Amino acid sequence: MTNSKHFHYFALIAVILVGGLLRFWHLDLKSFWLDEIITALFSLGRNYNDVPLDVVFPVEGLSQIFSFKAALSCPQIAANLATQSVHPPLFFCLLHSWVQTAFVGIEDSGLVWSLRSLPALIGVAAIAAIYWLNAIAFSRSAGLIAAAFMAVSPFAVYLSQEARHYTLPILLITLSLVGLTQIQKDLLQQKLRYFTWLGWIAVNCLGFYTHYFFILAFVAQVVTLLALMYSRRRSLPRYSFLAIAASILVVVASFIPWLLAMLSHANRSETTWLSQSNPIAPIYQTLASWVLMLIALPVENQPWWIAIVVALVMIVFSIWSTQLIFRGLKQLWHSPKTHLSTKILLSFTIIVLLEMFVIVYFLGRDITIAPRYNFVYYPSFCALVGASLAVQNFKLKLPNAKYIVISFGLISSIFVVNNLAFQKPFNPKLVAQNMNLEPTIPLMMVVGYETYQDVALGLSFALALEKIRVNDSTNLAFLSRSPGYESVWQKLSTSPLPEATRVNLWIVAPGLKRRAYPPQLTLSNKQCDIDTTQHYRIGIPYQLYRCS
Questions:
Q1: Where are the beta strands (DSSP E) in 40-197?
Q2: Do the beta carbons of residue 122 and residue 175 sit within 8 Å?
Q3: What is the pLDDT of residue 498?
Q4: What backbone torsions phi and psi does residue 324 show, to the nearest 5 degrees?
Q5: What is the maximum alpha-carbon separation in the chain?
Q6: Within 13 Å and on the Cβ side, how many CA atoms surround 463?
Q7: Strand-by-strand arrangement of the 474-480 sheet
Q8: What is the predicted pLDDT for the residue at 399?
Q9: Which of 21, 30, 7, 1 minimizes the C-alpha distance to 418?
Q10: CA 295/CA 302 separation, integer angstroms
């Protein structure tokens, strides 16, 4: 028995180490994309006022924009976010302290590694947390398999390698589900452990300040808890409903200081891209997100025949896995020992999904369009998959099923960390490579901006360019396109031209159609002719002009 216990914990340590290796492997391989630029600016203590706008500046100026601003307080970072972004402040404050403490600014390590290392570390902690959840809810073996599943899940690895506030709410939601499960078990035994309630309250209070979607998780927990308490109301301890009411009030009251900021963020332009048009899309987008939690093979930017074969493999594996998981869930549901925990986690997952569809169909915001937003119910999804695979080991005589699922997850995660799957939106690295088609010729990139999102997008391209341009002949300009692109063309005509006989001028023009690019532009009284063979669109269009 002792040897078995030692082997169990040895396996758990091995799982956590593998998860850590995957999350830190090639951590700085992919270039920062738009959202990570936002993280970088605000967590370094900067804001958009630090970006030179409507002027031409050399690419070397990026080092100043992304330099660490020490001794900035969390209220100052929160003030920047309240006015120039749409996010609560906790993660950005933690990341600022992390960079200052662990990296002494960013002088001793790269920008990308400094900012992605904290989410990766939190992602490793989430593996241990999911083990704890399933060990309490089901069994230690179910905890181990859930930890192994999360360790190699391509979705979890992808989020852990993002300099964004996703792994922190995943960790907090997992811990809150630990508290919710323990509270339900205690209530059935006529117990009220105040330490458990206080821990559950504290985790949810922190969660509100990490991501606005944490509100969905909290509401789902409350509805689940109240529904189960009501169904057993005659056998519950005295004052249990009073305890839950007081807990809800404390959590809600804790968010009041940030409530006005959240309301002001609700209709900001940064969320307009979530508008819902196709009524069927949210359904298949959600199903696709479930697939990506299990398997993610190289499909993006592959030849069509490879993409088709790989997609078929993913579909077949997903169908097989779904049948396997549903069989396990049926076993868990009908077992008296696991029925309550299964009911709690299934209820939480279903309620979150219903909330997401309410946002999609009633508020017109399609949050299913980006797989990353499914982080809200990912911990319960992971816990149920782990428990389902664990129970089938004994009930259905399929000892290899869990290893097959975990092996495909491991292969998928290797593709993810090597930038073959879950590629960054807008693909800044590929954009920079396309722009650098003639490395010896001076280059000027101009971004027509309307919102700060456009500025962040241009900065992501500029950082990727800085990495591959070997000389100092690269210049940048962010020019306001209000009221239209005619103002950009006018500003270009008076912009200083780099001292060179030839210049490659790249125009990044969000919202501009290809035919709307003028055939000629003027840059500092020099003529620039459009190169119709060098037009690209990766979410947004960018076009080459040759100036001489």
A1: 56-58
A2: no
A3: 66
A4: -65, -45
A5: 86
A6: 25
A7: 56-58, 474-480, 443-449, 503-508, 540-547, 526-538, 520-523
A8: 58
A9: 30
A10: 17
Q: Cβ distance 127 to 378 under 8 Å?
A: no
How many other C-beta atoms can be found within 10 angstroms of the C-beta atom of residue 482? Answer: 11
Per-residue pLDDT at 374? 96
**What pTM, to 2 d.p., does this model score?**
0.94
Q: Which two tokens stand for residue 545?
A: 């002009």
- What is each CA distance from 317 to 16, 290, 296, 297, 326, in whole angstroms? 25, 12, 11, 11, 14
Whole-number pLDDT of residue 395: 47
Q: Six-digit token pair at 206?
A: 């922190």
Residue 167's identity, in one-letter code, is T
Number of Cβ within a 10 Å radius of residue 132: 17
Question: How far apart, in whole angstroms, are the C-alpha atoms of residue 477 and residue 449?
Answer: 10
DSSP 256-267: HHHHHHHHHHTT
Q: Beta partners for 543?
A: 507, 535
Ranges of residues in the chain with a pLDDT under 50 are: 394-396
Q: Alpha helix locations (H) across 255-400?
A: 256-265, 281-294, 304-334, 339-363, 378-395
Note whether 42 and 85 are within 8 A (CB): yes
Write down the pLDDT at residue 139. Answer: 94
Q: From the centroid of its chain, how far is CA 70? A: 26
The tokens of 475 are what? Answer: 């210049």
Nearest CA-CA partner of 12 in 178, 170, 130 = 130
